[in-house]
């Protein structure tokens, strides 16, 4: 019984915390939104970086034997 009371006490505390957070979010509905432009810029940046890294790796692997004698 002692553990059950502690469990429900913690559960009530978590629910109270969640209710407080939801009330704050309702007051400021725009909080935490990311614009689609930001997402597009990030995706393009990461894609570009991967393409550059892949190209460098391809060139190095292609000319690896020729570069070994330098």
Features:
transmembrane helix, 0% strand, 83% helix, membrane, transmembrane
Task: Please tell me about this protein's structure.
This protein is mainly alpha-helical and 70 residues long. The protein has one domain. The protein is built from three helices and no strands. The radius of gyration is 27 Å and the shape is elongated. The mean pLDDT is 85.
Quick recap:
The protein has 70 residues and is mainly alpha-helical. The protein has helices at residues 2-27, 36-62, 64-68. 83% of the residues lie in helices and 0% in strands.
Q: Work out the helicity level.
A: over 70%
User: Which radius of gyration do the C-alpha atoms yield?
Assistant: 27 Å
Mean pLDDT: 85
Order of helical and strand elements: HHH
Count of the separate structural domains? 1
How is the secondary structure organized here?
Blueprint: H1 2-27, H2 36-62, H3 64-68
């Amino acid at each position: 019984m002692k553990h059950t009371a502690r469990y429900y006490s913690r559960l009530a505390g978590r629910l109270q915390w969640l209710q407080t957070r939801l009330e704050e979010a309702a007051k400021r509905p725009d909080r935490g939104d990311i614009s689609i432009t930001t997402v597009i810029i990030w995706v393009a940046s990461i894609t570009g970086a991967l393409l550059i890294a892949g190209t460098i790796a391809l060139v190095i692997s292609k000319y690896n034997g020729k570069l070994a004698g330098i």
